[in-house]
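>> received
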Amino acid sequence: MFAVLVIVGVGAAAFRLSFATLRDLAVLAHVPSSDAWLLPLIIDGTIVQATAGALVLAKSSDRTFFVRVLIAGAVVSVAGNSLHAVANGHPLPGWVCAVVAAIAPISLLVDTHGLAVLVRAAQSRREPVAVSVPVGESVNPAVPEPVSAPDPAPAPATPPPAPAVRKRRDPATVAKAVELRGQGKSFPEIAAALKVSPSTARNYALSGTPVPAADPAPVPEPDSEPDPVRVTPIAAARPAPVAPPVVRPRPVQPVLPLSIPVGG
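>> returned
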């Protein structure tokens, strides 16, 4: 709290002294005495506005404008106070009077632009950003997708060995090998004649050797004639005797005597 009071007191004293100095400078620049107090108000007021704008737009790109205005206002205030001390109450030259007279319109232009920048920044903060969402779709917050580690490069696969190409046998060569084998030639001699290896000559000679057909098994002849088939005669079936029907006699009921009245 004490630091705040010190800052406020020092600021008020500096403003009062700068205000009096710049007012006398305006009088020395041929500004009417009744309006001379407006010059320090214009210069110090511009400095206050630039400071407030730089604080409000601390995270905006427009802050650069207010920083430049703050630096220019401070330079003008310091130069005016120094020029007042150098003049020592004497009238200022004409070109200095022209510079002092140009401070007011330039400050009006700068302050107006600064006010427009502050209003535009306030409106941009109040207006929400409109996002067009199609009907039926919900707005989901953007969730960063997990970044998976890159898969290691696969080792180059060893190509499978090429299948061995089986060379087809020449029928004429096989027939020649069979013919030489039939003549009693050995396998090395057949290989030399056909210009192949002994094992190949052996395969050729054996693959073309015909296999003798197996003799059919002999069918044994029957030693004697087959026994004749004996047929046993079947006797005719006799008809079963039919029993005569049994007639049961009816029971005879006794006749009761009838009494006939006489003279009836």
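>> Residues 2-126 form one domain.
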